[in-house]
Amino acid sequence: MSYVDGFVAAVPTANRQAFIEHARQAAVVFKEYGALKVVECWGDDVPEGEVTSFPMAVQCGPDETVVFSWLVWPSREVRNQAMPRLMEDPRLSPEVNPMPFDGKRLIYGGFETVVDE
Q1: End-to-end CA distance of the chain
Q2: Residues 114, 15 contacting (CB under 8 angstroms)
Q3: How far apart are CA 27 and CA 32, in angstroms?
Q4: 68 CB contacts (<8 Å, ≥6 apart)?
Q5: pLDDT by residue (tens digit) across 31-84?
Q6: Cβ–Cβ < 8 Å for 105, 58
Q7: What percent of the chain has pLDDT over 90?
Q8: Which of 13, 26, 63, 116 has an alpha carbon within 20 to 30 A of 1's alpha carbon?
Q9: CB count, 10 Å around CB of 81?
Q10: Which among 73, 70, 76, 2 has a CA at the least distance from the CA of 32?
Q11: Distance, CA of 74 to CA of 114 (rounded, Å)
């Protein structure tokens, strides 16, 4: 089964277009290194929770929007082989393609697919 990297971040709402451009440029690179799919979603109905929530998890401010993203890889092995090369690819460097959000509040993780209906 496939392997998924998931991400949640708080992006300044004013940076929506910059985020989309950043994501489009990065998607090209991720796909070159083997990602099957890159999905970036702009929060539209993301409520605050009482105990936990997406906004709370990324310390989303009133002038920010939660984004939810994922990369689909053929396998964890393909992803693990790609990551060192991705980190060295100059097209993903902060100088060339700066993140239009606070990367310190980015949540990410890798997930083994267990159901894909």
Answers
A1: 12
A2: no
A3: 9
A4: 6, 7, 8, 41, 43, 54
A5: 999 999 999 999 999 999 999 999 999 999 999 999 999 999 999 999 999 999
A6: yes
A7: 95
A8: 26
A9: 14
A10: 73
A11: 13
Tell the residue number behind the tokens 């929506």, with chain if given: 16
- Residue 85 tokens read as 């090369």
Query: Considering the entire predicted model, what is its pTM?
Result: 0.92
The packing angle between helices 16-32 and 76-88, to 10°, is 120
CATH number of 3-112: 3.30.70.100
Query: In 3D, which of 26, 51, 32 has the Cα closest to residue 103?
Result: 26
